[in-house]
Q: What sequence folds into this?
């Protein structure tokens, strides 16, 4: 017997109309921005180098040779020349990407987390809590960032961890300020009042209503700090306060190659070119992101 | 699901909400030399009741304290003094903790866009409050869709939309749906229709009336638009400079206003009837500043009938012949005002 | 408005105290013996003890902090462990040198930044705008110490037009405004000016674009205001913010000059800071950081005050 089930009319699936979410709109807008896309591509390449660099170097970046010191660009076997200890520049630049990017990005991520925590708490709590927290932050904000970074590094001593700590501390105040400012604006909007009126506690309100509206702008601001962080991190290594030799890091390489500017000026300048490119790419990326997110839907 | 239904405690005679002596002052910052300071007496001692199933309209000019009162009623701001009793239970006491009270009272704000989280869909916005009170997500969303349908927005078209995609009137309907999500008994409407176009306003008002019938709601309807208040309200409360000037049955108050302020306010409505032309001079001057209210009766500086007693003592709400209560020395026997009725000799 | 200004000034005081506290804490955070730079390894315990007492390292931290602050307010920042000279003297000599550089750099950055920014904002969307904007992005992105190196390579090593470093004959103490000395300033000043130029260009561009977009500009033109008139109007409205940014950039340059001064061996505060760190010269380090930070705080204050005076709306 064939049992043909007759479908009831109202069991047809109901499709709810929806529009693309916020992030999809941002993504689409971003895709249309050629400059930002280009920058994103560069950043991705650099990140790729950072992760896989050490595995794909043509020559061992640590292998030094007193005979092959400071050979020029285009030298046989060393397309970008060699440094003051005879090590291959190309390989060192590639491997340097890892440390340089790590030192630049990590403090910003840490500062983003900590700064947001401080700023959002201060912004939502308001009143005395806000004043106390923000005045403390202001004291640190009263230092020019380079000075603070160097003073902290000088105090803590050289080394990767110490540099990461000091840079994180340098970036927490600006991020906290932005977080506080944005959170205070959101907190005063009626929908937060409506959420309070529904009996929710502070954590739930922050989680459901505040975070979604606040993390975006803070994130965009944080991305604009990455380029600065990179330059500062490399700068610390340049001064001898950051990464220690023989690790390849672009800022450190600039330092050790300084004496070579009279012998092989262009080799001496190479690591800085990498820093420059990275910095431009992150800045353009941050700009593109800001444009994509800024226009109110 | 019975956990969400709130039971009537005291029967129809007991007011749903009783407010006594509510006070809220906002301090002004002093500058470093000690100048400035002082307080904004936004709400300075108000008493009123809201009865079950009625719509209490609240009117007054800017600065009279209507919006502050709304927020005080919702406990979004904590009062400095005063007591609120909801259906016989003191708000904030162990019998009725704040979170429970919040299930019973909800508010619809004026700015329909600012009252919705731009990042949440309509159904998520509505479903938030029930979830806070323990309703599981799926069920809360179902209820949200149901409510959307009840306020006239087809769930299929609107549930998963974002605030910026809806018009002002549609958003306000969502706000109303949200206010109903907890099956509250008292809804405070703070200038809920003031920002809407007139045609949309009419639709929303009628929706409010239908919902009130269907769910047995009680409204506090705050507005500066006297015609709308008259249309919507059973009783009306007139506020001036943080205090209550007059409360009474809507029609009586509009036909026979007792307080001079009410009279002046009503006369500022342009009359549509050529036989009933405006006779009393409309209110003169700007709305006063609640920082330094005048002594005695606060209205005496703008009152046509002011006399010495008015600047000396503050009048209390007293019954008036036509049935309202009004705070005016002209209504109180033996007050010293020349228009006051004679004190009846005690027998 | 005066109330606002007075409040602003008074508000700075706790900040200054906080800054001093942070300076003190920073320096005393550092591990390692502060006297290691001048004590020979075989110094007697007695000598060590003497020096410790002389510098006050044996007292409790709050005591040290209090006495340091007290003396600092009177102008005495202690004695440098490495050089034996008064810290105040060293710091102020270095500050003067850095100021010369920083002021020049800020002026260059301001002039060109305004130029680029104005052009970009006025001709918004055109190729001029894109070119000017590109320049300012480059300016903001460049690692300035690297740029310094490149300039040294080009102008010193290859072209040999300008000296690679130092502050001229006579060391850091002897300055005169002659070519012999000024030629040492050119490269570092240009290097230093690049980042402020980028930032000022961006700010001015945004300002100009915003002002021009306002509706009353159309009204002014309709009334017959010429281009020159509009230009002056834009300048008047953009000036307060632009000047404020310039002031802040000066502050950053003062505090952040260390990298460039290292590249050019310019005997300024950055250089001093560098040697103080590597020689672990605590009094010098403390004093230098304090002076630089205070400069920045005061500069911020001055900028705020001037902005408020120029644009009273801010006070409200």
A:
């Amino acid at each position: 017997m064939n049992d043909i089930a007759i479908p009831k009319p109202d069991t047809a699936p109901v499709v709810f109309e929806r529009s693309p979410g916020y992030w999809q709109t941002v993504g689409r807008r971003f895709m249309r921005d050629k400059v930002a896309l280009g920058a994103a591509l560069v950043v991705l390449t650099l990140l790729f180098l950072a992760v896989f660099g050490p595995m794909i170097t043509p020559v061992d970046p640590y292998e030094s040779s007193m005979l092959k010191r400071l050979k020029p660009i285009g030298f046989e076997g060393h397309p970008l020349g060699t440094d003051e200890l005879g090590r291959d520049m190309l390989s060192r630049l590639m491997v340097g990407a890892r440390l340089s990017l790590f030192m630049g990005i990590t403090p910003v991520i840490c500062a983003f987390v900590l700064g947001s925590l401080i700023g959002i708490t201060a912004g939502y709590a308001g009143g005395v809590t806000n004043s106390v927290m923000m005045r403390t932050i202001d004291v640190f904000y009263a230092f020019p960032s380079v000075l603070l970074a160097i003073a902290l590094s000088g105090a803590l001593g050289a080394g990767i961890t110490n540099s990461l700590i000091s840079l994180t501390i340098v970036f927490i105040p600006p991020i906290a300020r932005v977080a506080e400012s944005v959170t205070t604006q959101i907190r005063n909007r009626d929908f937060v009042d409506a959420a309070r009126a529904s009996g929710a506690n502070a954590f739930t309100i922050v989680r459901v209503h505040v975070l979604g509206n606040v993390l975006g702008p803070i994130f965009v601001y944080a991305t604009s700090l990455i380029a600065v962080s990179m330059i500062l991190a490399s700068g610390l290594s340049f001064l001898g306060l950051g990464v220690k030799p023989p690790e390849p890091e672009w800022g450190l390489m600039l330092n050790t190659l300084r004496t070579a500017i009279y012998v092989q000026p262009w080799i001496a300048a190479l690591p800085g070119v990498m820093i420059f490119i990275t910095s431009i790419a992150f800045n353009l990326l941050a700009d593109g992101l800001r444009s994509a997110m800024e226009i109110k839907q | 699901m019975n956990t969400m239904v709130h039971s009537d405690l005291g029967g129809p005679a007991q007011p749903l909400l009783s407010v006594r002596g509510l006070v809220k002052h906002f301090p002004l910052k002093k500058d470093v030399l000690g100048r400035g300071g002082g307080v904004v007496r936004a709400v300075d001692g108000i008493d009123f009741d809201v009865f079950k199933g009625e719509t209490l309209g609240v009117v007054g000019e800017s600065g009279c304290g209507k919006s502050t009162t709304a927020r005080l009623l919702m406990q979004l701001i904590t009062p400095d003094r005063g007591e609120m009793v909801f259906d016989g239970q003191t708000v904030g006491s162990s019998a009725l903790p704040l979170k429970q009270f919040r299930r019973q009272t909800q508010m619809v704000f004026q700015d329909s866009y600012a009252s919705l989280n731009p990042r949440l869909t309509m159904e998520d916005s509505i479903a938030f409050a029930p979830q806070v009170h323990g309703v599981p997500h799926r069920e809360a969303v179902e209820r949200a869709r149901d409510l959307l349908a009840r306020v006239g927005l087809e769930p299929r078209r609107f549930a998963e939309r974002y605030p910026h995609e809806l018009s002002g009137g549609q958003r306000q309907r969502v706000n109303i749906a949200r206010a109903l999500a907890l099956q509250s008994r008292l809804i405070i409407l703070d200038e809920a229709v003031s920002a809407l176009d007139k045609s949309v306003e009419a639709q929303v008002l009628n929706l409010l009336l239908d919902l009130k019938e269907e769910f047995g709601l009680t409204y506090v309807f705050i507005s500066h638009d006297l015609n709308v208040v008259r249309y919507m309200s059973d009783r009306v409360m007139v506020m001036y400079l943080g205090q209550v000037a007059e409360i009474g049955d809507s029609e009586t108050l509009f036909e026979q206003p007792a307080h001079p302020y009410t009279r002046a306010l009503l006369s500022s409505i342009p009359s549509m009837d050529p036989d009933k032309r405006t006779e009393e001079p409309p209110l003169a001057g700007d709305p006063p500043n609640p920082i330094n209210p005048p002594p005695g009766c606060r209205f005496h500086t703008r009152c046509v009938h002011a006399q010495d007693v008015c600047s000396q003592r503050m009048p209390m709400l007293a019954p008036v012949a036509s049935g309202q209560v009004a705070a005016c020395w002209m209504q109180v026997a033996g007050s010293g005002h020349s228009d006051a009725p004679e004190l009846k000799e005690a027998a | 408005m005066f109330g606002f200004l007075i409040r602003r000034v008074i508000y700075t005081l706790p900040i200054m105290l906080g800054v001093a506290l942070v300076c003190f804490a920073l320096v005393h955070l550092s591990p390692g013996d502060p006297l290691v730079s001048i004590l020979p390894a075989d110094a007697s315990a007695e000598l060590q003890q003497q020096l410790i007492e002389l510098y006050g390292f044996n007292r409790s931290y709050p005591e040290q902090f209090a006495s340091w602050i007290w003396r600092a307010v009177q102008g005495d920042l202690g004695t440098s462990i490495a050089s034996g000279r008064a810290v105040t003297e060293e710091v102020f000599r270095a500050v003067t040198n850095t100021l010369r550089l920083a002021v020049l750099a800020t002026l260059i950055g301001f002039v060109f930044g305004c130029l680029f920014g104005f052009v970009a904002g006025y001709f918004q969307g055109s190729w001029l705008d894109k070119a000017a904007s590109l320049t300012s992005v480059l300016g903001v992105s460049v690692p300035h110490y690297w740029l310094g190196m490149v300039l040294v390579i080009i102008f010193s090593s290859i072209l040999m037009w300008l000296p690679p470093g130092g502050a001229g004959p006579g060391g850091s103490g002897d300055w005169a405004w002659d070519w012999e000395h000024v030629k040492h300033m050119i490269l570092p000043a240009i290097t230093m000016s690049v980042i402020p130029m980028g930032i000022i260009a961006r700010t001015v561009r945004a300002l100009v674009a915003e002002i021009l977009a306002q509706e009353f500009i159309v009204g002014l033109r309709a009334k017959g205001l010429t281009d020159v008139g509009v230009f002056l109007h834009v300048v008047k409205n953009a000036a307060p913010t632009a000047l404020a940014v310039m002031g802040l950039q000066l502050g950053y340059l003062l505090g952040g000059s260390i990298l460039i001064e290292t590249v050019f061996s310019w005997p300024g505060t950055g250089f001093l800071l560098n040697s103080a760190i590597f020689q672990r010269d605590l009094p010098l380090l403390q004093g230098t950081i304090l002076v630089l930070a205070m400069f920045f705080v005061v500069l911020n204050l001055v900028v705020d005050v001037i902005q408020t005076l120029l644009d009273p709306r801010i006070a409200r």
Notes: The mean pLDDT of chain C is 78. The interface with chain B takes residues 3-4, 6-7, 10 of chain C (CB under 8 Å). Residues 87-122 of chain C form the longest helix (36 residues).
